[in-house]
Amino acid sequence: ATKALKSVGAQLIAVGENPIDKIWSDRPAPSDAKLIVLGDEYTGQGSAEKRAAVADWLSEKGLDGAILSALDSVAWAFNIRGDDVSRTPVALSFAVINGDGTADFYVEPDKLTDEVRAHLGNAVRLHPRSAFAPALEGMKGKKIAVDPERAVAAIFDKLASGGAEIVPLRDPTVIPRAQKNTVE
By percentage, how much of the chain surpasses pLDDT 90? Predict the structure, then answer.
């Protein structure tokens, strides 16, 4: 989008505050629905296996991490489901899958139950959703895959301002999600 705008002499300018927030006086409160674990008996593959496959993909491409900003990608990668979006079993969240198979998961802490924490294990670091933007700015010198079709401009801006090398690639969960295993 930035290149297309530039070609006609325009540019995107980020605003400090969402203007919709100023006029939406009866905005509903964010969902406080808890996450649930979707067991391997339904997925056919554990979350650690999925993250390891993404880590292999990252290694093949010489990358340090991949941003998952599509809610269905995050749900698939961690084998979790939520109830934050009407008729869609996802939670408002973000994730970074790292080259070593670990992950950083950005979701509101009150959505996490003991069962979900145990399911995610020690290889998944948990952070409040509000910590995502500052984390992007802290990726200086890292080569990070970001899907231009699934990530908003702010993700690119925060990574760039923090000194990360942005590699525009398709979300590494898209093809594996489309290839169903026998259990699915």
Answer: 82
Contact 58, 144 (CB under 8 A): no
Q: How many angstroms separate the CA atoms of 78 and 95, rounded?
A: 9
pTM of the model: 0.91
For β-strands 94-98 and 36-37, DSSP reports them as unpaired
Q: What is the pLDDT of residues 32-58, one digit of tens each?
A: 999 999 999 999 899 999 999 999 999
Q: How far is CA 174 from CA 13, 55, 69, 134, in A?
A: 30, 15, 12, 26
**Distances 58 to 51, 63, 67, 76, 171 between C-alpha atoms, Å:** 10, 5, 11, 17, 11
Is the CA virtual torsion 54, 55, 59, 61 positive or negative?
positive
**End-to-end Cα separation, the chain, in angstroms:** 36
Bridge partners of residue 88, in order along the sequence? 85
142-172 confidence digits (pLDDT tens)? 999 999 999 999 999 999 999 999 999 999 9
Q: Which residues contact 163 (CB under 8 A, 6 or more apart)?
A: 139, 140, 141
Angle between helices 71-78 and 47-61 (to 10 degrees): 110
Q: Which residue(s) pair with 26 in the sheet? A: none
CA dihedral 59, 48, 72, 60 (to 10 degrees): 10
